[in-house]
Amino acid sequence: YELFFEDAVVVSEAIGLTLTTRSKLGDKEIPMCGVPFHAYEIYLARLIKQGFKVAIAEQTEDPKEAKKRKGASAVVRRDVVRLVTSGTVTEENLLDAKRNNFIVSSSVREKEIGVAWVDISTGAFFMQRIEVGRQKTVEVLATALARFDVKEVLFEDGLLEKPEFFPLFGEYRDKLSIRSKALYNIHSAENVLLKAYKVKTMQSFGDFSKAELIAAGVLFEYIETTQKGKLPLIQLPKHVVGNNIMEVDGPTRRSLELIEPTTEKGISLLKVIDRTITPAGGRLLAERLAMPIMDIEEINNRLDCVSFFLDNPNVRNEVRKALKSCFDAERSIGRLSLERGSPRDLYELAYSLKVIPGVKEAIIGFKTYQKDSVYAQTPLYLFDKVNGFGNHSELVFEVLNLFVNDVNAIPKIARNGGFIKNGVNATLDYLHDIKNLCEPKCEELRKKYVDITGVSSLKIKNNSVIGYYVEVPSKNASALLENGMFIHRQSVLNAVRFTTEELMKLENEVMSADEEALKIELEIFDKLREFALGQAAEIAKSVQILAEIDVASSLAELALEYDYARPIVDDSLDFDVIDSTIGFPGNMIKSSIGLLYIL
Hints:
With 599 residues, the protein is an alpha+beta fold. It has 23 helices and 15 strands. It is globular and about 100 Å long.
């Protein structure tokens, strides 16, 4: 990737690239800098962390088609294919596996605020209506935003004229994206949402206020703009009801050190209690800490799950052993939906879904693993959860049957090829054989050419620039130059390179076989990707269930480690701690109170 003019100057200074020049405009040289394609994520991450928004432009036309259109001097068409911002990154290396990457939008009205937030890397989508009440509007909004480790926040440009919002803008100054007031109307917002979900009314998803719908519509419009018309797979909205969660203002959150420590060497509650295994489980635990629930029934349902795994250690161990095989399926399906997914994403998705039958059997058939269990049956809440798993057996079978078995051998870029195993496609095997037979054929030719020329040091080599070639030391070049069957290609330091009609024919066969083999592999990949996307909603649900099981079993591990007793949670105002040592090493009182409300 290359940058020119002012972009090149700014970026070279920001991330330490060498600034050079390319051609001239008039009598002035054009500043230029660049980064290798294979390493672009490293430099992209540095720019995003500094608050830049990065437009990525790529070729949108095959060079062969360009030549057909305008001859050898044709300029290949290029266009901006994506705008990368801190809230819209999807690259695995730019994301924290155990933290959501939320982008938040709000619609501020006279008596209420609508808030919508999305993690486009996972598709998680939430909406909430918050009544302003007696508090100042800006204070209510600040408290809502404080729940998240916000990566990017959208504000209406009209708020820039209100001085009371200036401190809030200052707090999020590196994460702000300002949107036009014209977008903040119910008609355009609803149209964006209806188009995204391909429905005629949003009422089927819940009873949302105008403020919520406007916040969500602006958010979706922004995502579609940055993705150049492509929307990722975003789940159906989860409606967060205000009186079901505990609102905690920013200063209190910081002093409790729930998610992040307040000092460089400090430690957060999340860090202390996190025993999750899967990325999705880690994100769910952080989400529960950020939005602690106040629904007594839901709290006790969660505690039932923790108790079950604590009281059945063999079941817990079996489940956690299975979860260790999981990759980040949520983010894999997200990249696949944006056509940025790779064969490795598809393989990791299938491999993660493969654990579901074993996890389900361990929980429902727990007595097979825990013969001395005190439970007569699985807790109803947990039983219903595991029965909500989708059936992904066909997808798992197809992917794992077709792809090579080593995840590290599967490329992160589909066009690199080489991810379909031998024995599953006869045509592909034949094409691979052509390439595999190339080496012994080259050796036959080498021996033949040595006999003809008498140059024992003659070698046949291959590189990506000139293909296959015969190479001899410069001192022996005359023997080949005098022989009409050898065609001079290149002279380099201490060596001369040639080709022959036989070698060119062999090279053409190999290149044609490579191109045809890649075409077949890409067709298989595209079909499997579409198959996976066709059940994306079920996959998202299944991964979320695995995340809940991960969180419950990890809290059971924590309870065992610190010898915790289950609290009795009811509607009373009593807070009784009897005969107990409270707290964690290093952060005792704050962490203990925090753990009570996360559980």
